[in-house]
Write a structure and sequence with these properties.
Layout: H1 2-13, H2 26-36, H3 55-63, H4 69-78, H5 90-100, E1 117-118, E2 133-143, E3 149-158, E4 164-171, E5 176-178, H6 181-184, H7 188-192, E6 195-196, H8 197-209, E7 226-229, E8 244-246, H9 263-270, H10 282-297, H11 323-327, H12 331-337, H13 346-352
Parallel strand pairs: 2-7, 4-6, 7-8
Antiparallel strand pairs: 1-4, 2-3, 2-5, 3-4
Helix pairs in contact: 9-10
Length: about 350
C-alpha cells in the first residue's frame, strides 16, 4: 500500500506546471520542458491556468467538442468567445463585449478603381516615425497557360488608424490569362497603365525602411516600420523579418488546417465579423490583419528581462549538463526558467513604452 502511495505521489510531483501533462519519472518532465518552451506568452486558461500552444487549443479546452467540464461551465457564464478572456462577473463580460466585437470595415474598392492613391510622400525619411505600424494586402490575378499562377495586381497599405496611405493597381511582369473578376474585381483596363511591380515594391520598401538601410534594421530603437499582414510573401519584399508580423505564421494563431488559418477564419473567430463575402477588397484584409495584430499586441504578459529562449542568458537553462540540478527543481521552478521560442507581439508595445 505504501509503495502504491509513493508511486502516485511521484507521478503527481512530475506534473508539468504549464500544460499539466504527467510523467512517470522526473527526467521525462525535464525532457518535456526542454522541447515545449512553455512561457508566460502562451495562451492560458483564465480558470485553471493551463497553458496552450495556440488560441485554437485554448478554444477547444474551453468550448470544444470535449472541453474541460469545470472550465467550460464557468466560461459559459463569464467568458468572451472572441478573445477567450474570463471576467469576474456576467456584467463585466457584457461591458467587455461591447468593445471586443468589432464591426466590419466599409469596403473601399469602388473608391480606387480609377488608379493610384499615394499618401506616402507626406512621410519624408527621418522626419517622423509615425505611422510606426502599417498593414499591407495584395490581390492576385492569374498567369500562365491555365491561369493558376498568382500575379500581384493590386496593393493597399493602411496605418494604425485604418486610414489608407497607399493604394495602386500593379502591372504584372508576365501576361495575365485570368483576371479573376468575380473574386477580386479587377478588369483589364485597371492594369493597362498601372504601376510596374518593381516600382511598387521599391516605394513600399523605402517607406518601411524610413531612411534606414535594410541590413541595418533592428527589432527596436530604429526608424523602420513594422509591417503587418496575412501571407506577406506574395508581396516579394526584401525586408527584415524582425519587423514583419504575419498573422498566417504567428504560432498563437496557427492551426494545422490551412483553411482554418485563413484570414477569413481568423477574422470571424477573433474579431467577430465576416470578410471576403463578395468581391474581395485588399483594404478589408488590411484592416482585419491590423486588428488581429493589435489584439495580440495588447495582451498583458509578465515582463521578462530576456523573453526569448534563443537569447544568450537563456541558452543553458535546460542544458544536458544541468540534468541533476533540473531534476531537483520543482515543476514551478522549471516553468519560471523556461522561455518562449517565438516572438510575442506584446513585446512591441513594451519596447515602445
Amino acid at each position: 500500500m505504501d509503495s502504491r502511495f509513493n508511486s502516485s505521489s511521484e507521478t503527481s510531483r512530475n506534473k508539468c506546471a504549464a500544460c499539466f501533462r504527467q510523467f512517470n519519472r522526473m527526467e521525462h518532465l525535464v525532457d518535456h520542458m526542454r522541447t515545449s518552451f512553455h512561457s508566460v506568452h502562451e495562451p492560458t486558461c483564465g480558470i485553471c491556468q493551463k497553458h496552450c500552444r495556440s488560441f485554437e487549443s485554448l478554444r477547444e479546452h474551453l468550448i470544444g467538442p470535449l472541453p474541460k467540464l469545470e472550465c467550460a461551465r464557468i466560461f459559459a457564464v463569464r467568458g468572451c468567445s472572441l478573445c477567450l478572456a474570463v471576467f469576474d462577473s456576467p456584467n463585466s463580460l457584457r461591458v467587455h463585449r461591447a468593445t471586443c466585437q468589432l464591426s466590419r470595415p466599409v469596403a473601399a474598392y469602388r473608391m480606387f478603381n480609377s488608379g493610384t492613391y499615394d499618401d506616402l510622400i507626406h512621410f519624408e525619411c527621418g522626419r517622423t516615425r509615425a505611422p510606426r505600424v502599417v498593414a499591407a494586402s495584395c490581390k492576385m490575378v492569374g498567369g500562365g497557360s491555365d491561369g493558376s499562377l498568382d500575379l500581384c495586381a493590386r496593393v493597399c497599405l493602411i496605418d494604425e488608424s485604418e486610414r489608407i496611405i497607399f493604394h495602386t493597381y500593379v502591372k504584372p511582369q508576365i501576361p495575365v490569362t485570368n483576371y479573376r473578376y468575380e473574386i477580386v474585381g479587377i478588369r483589364p483596363e485597371y492594369l493597362r497603365d498601372a504601376m510596374p511591380l518593381k516600382q511598387v515594391q521599391r516605394k513600399i520598401q523605402d517607406f518601411l525602411c524610413n531612411g534606414e538601410p535594410v541590413w541595418k534594421i533592428r527589432s527596436s530603437g530604429g526608424n523602420a516600420r513594422i509591417l503587418v499582414g496575412h501571407g506577406l510573401d506574395c508581396l516579394g519584399l526584401e525586408y527584415s523579418q524582425h519587423m514583419i508580423r504575419d498573422t498566417a505564421k504567428y504560432p498563437p494563431l496557427m492551426k494545422t488546417s490551412k483553411l482554418s488559418n485563413s484570414l477569413k477564419y481568423l477574422t470571424q473567430a477573433y474579431l467577430g465579423y465576416d470578410i471576403q463575402t463578395g468581391i474581395q477588397d485588399p483594404y478589408e484584409d488590411c484592416v482585419s490583419a491590423m486588428r488581429l495584430y493589435m489584439r495580440m499586441r495588447s495582451q498583458f504578459h509578465a515582463v521578462e528581462d530576456y523573453p526569448m529562449a534563443s537569447e544568450a542568458p537563456n541558452q543553458n537553462n535546460f542544458a544536458s549538463w544541468r540534468q541533476n540540478e533540473l531534476e531537483r527543481m520543482t515543476p514551478e521552478q522549471m516553468l519560471e526558467t523556461s522561455r518562449s521560442d517565438y516572438y510575442c507581439w506584446c513585446l512591441d508595445a513594451k519596447r515602445e513604452t
